């Protein structure tokens, strides 16, 4: 059997020699100064020779130790470089995707198995959150955002534009003011999504901005709750057409305004610049766009 190498003692020797300081070596290694001193004593006992002499500024390599220190330092630097390569390889095969809960539940998660079948080596972690992910500060590789596509400093790709329609109780609309344009909806209470974004973005797409009524009104976490509140006559809800189709057909809801959908109001795949140079990110973005087209 080969000899057991005292790696911790050798690392203490390499770092103390690099910095000329036991305290600095301890900080780098994440241990106490006493632990570094103890490892150095053990190494000196093993080689039966002094390795450092103390100076008023710290420690200094002895003549014999100085001859082997450069090779020892290179060895640990190579080990650290190899570890970084392994970690980068692992990171390259894992992804964190952030999107709003409704999109994650209704569209992304049910399809995710197809991506895993095609790319079993890539681990995907889905964060479902209404909060806007900060790609520069959080460990998020890909965000799927619902908006108008204006994301300064980020790379955005149009994914899909599911149509949202303004719906309300027929009685509420019959008793209220006439709606001929998107701005006319503001005469009614607006029933909001959880982060109060959909009405603001929908109106902005039609050139309506700056009115304080845009973000007022009750807010709901789920589309079916919005539909129920609209049925109860509490205001106008902006919901996916598929969620209100049955209620409109049955006459429990009416479309408040029938306008062509603003195509720029859509879901976008958003990444940091150069992020798509990573094979895993490029593969996931490509899969998303192909699923959206299908």
Summarize the structure.
The chain is elongated, with a radius of gyration of 31 Å.
What brief labels describe this structure?
294 residues; D-Maltodextrin-Binding Protein, domain 2; 10 helices; Arc Repressor Mutant, subunit A; alpha/beta; 3 domains; transcription regulation
List strands and helices in order, with pairings.
Elements: H1 7-19, H2 22-29, H3 33-47, E1 52-55, E2 58-61, H4 63-92, E3 94-99, H5 101-118, E4 123-128, E5 142-147, E6 155-160, E7 164-168, H6 170-175, E8 190-193, H7 198-205, E9 219-220, H8 223-231, E10 236-240, H9 241-250, E11 254-255, E12 266-271, H10 279-293
Parallel strand pairs: 3-4, 3-5, 8-9, 8-10
Antiparallel strand pairs: 1-2, 5-12, 6-12, 7-10, 7-11
Helix pairs in contact: 1-2, 1-3, 1-4, 2-3
Q: What share of the residues lie within helices?
A: 40-55%
- Please write the CATH class name of the largest domain: Alpha Beta
Under CATH, the topology of the largest domain can be stated as: D-Maltodextrin-Binding Protein, domain 2
Gyration radius, in Å = 31 Å
Describe the structure in your own words.
Helix content is 45%, strand content 19%. The protein has three domains: 7-91, Arc Repressor Mutant, subunit A (Orthogonal Bundle); 93-161 and 265-293, D-Maltodextrin-Binding Protein, domain 2 (3-Layer(aba) Sandwich), CATH 3.40.190.10; 164-255, D-Maltodextrin-Binding Protein, domain 2 (3-Layer(aba) Sandwich), CATH 3.40.190.10. Helix 2 (22-29) packs across helix 3. It contains ten helices and twelve strands. It has helices spanning 7-19, 22-29, 33-47, 63-92, 101-118, 170-175, 198-205, 223-231, 241-250, 279-293; strands at residues 52-55, 58-61, 94-99, 123-128, 142-147, 155-160, 164-168, 190-193, 219-220, 236-240, 254-255, 266-271. The strands form three sheets. It has a five-stranded mixed beta sheet. The chain has a five-stranded mixed beta sheet with strand order 9-8-10-7-11. The model has no long low-confidence stretch (mean pLDDT 88). The chain is of the alpha/beta class and 294 residues long. The chain is elongated and about 100 Å long. The longest helix has 30 residues, at 63-92.
């Amino acid at each position: 059997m080969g000899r057991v190498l005292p790696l911790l003692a050798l690392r203490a020797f390499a770092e103390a020699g690099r910095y000329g300081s036991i305290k600095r070596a301890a900080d780098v290694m994440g241990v106490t100064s006493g632990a570094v001193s103890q490892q150095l004593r053990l190494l000196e006992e093993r080689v039966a020779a002094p390795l450092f002499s103390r100076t008023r500024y710290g420690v200094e390599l002895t003549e014999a130790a100085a001859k082997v220190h450069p090779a020892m330092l290179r060895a640990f630097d190579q080990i650290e470089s190899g570890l970084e390569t392994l970690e980068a390889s692992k990171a390259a095969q894992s992804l964190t995707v952030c999107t709003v809960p409704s999109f994650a539940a209704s569209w992304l998660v049910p399809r995710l198995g197809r991506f895993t079948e095609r790319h079993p080596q890539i681990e995907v972690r889905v964060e479902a959150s209404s909060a806007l992910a900060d790609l520069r500060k959080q460990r998020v590789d890909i965000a799927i955002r619902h908006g108008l596509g204006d994301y300064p400093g980020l790379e955005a790709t149009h994914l899909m534009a599911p149509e949202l329609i303004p719906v309300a109780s027929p009685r509420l609309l019959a008793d209220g003011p006439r709606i001929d344009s998107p701005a006319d909806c503001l005469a009614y209470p607006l029933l909001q999504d959880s982060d109060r974004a959909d009405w603001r973005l929908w109106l902005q797409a039609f050139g309506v901005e700056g009115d304080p009524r845009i973000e007022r009104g009750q807010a709901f976490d789920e589309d079916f709750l919005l539909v129920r509140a609209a049925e109860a006559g509490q205001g106008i809800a902006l919901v996916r057409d598929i969620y209100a189709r049955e209620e409109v057909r049955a006459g429990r809801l009416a479309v408040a305004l029938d306008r062509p959908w603003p195509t720029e109001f859509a879901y976008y795949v958003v990444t940091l610049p150069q992020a798509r140079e990573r094979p895993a990110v490029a593969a996931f973005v490509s899969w998303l766009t192909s699923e959206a087209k299908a």
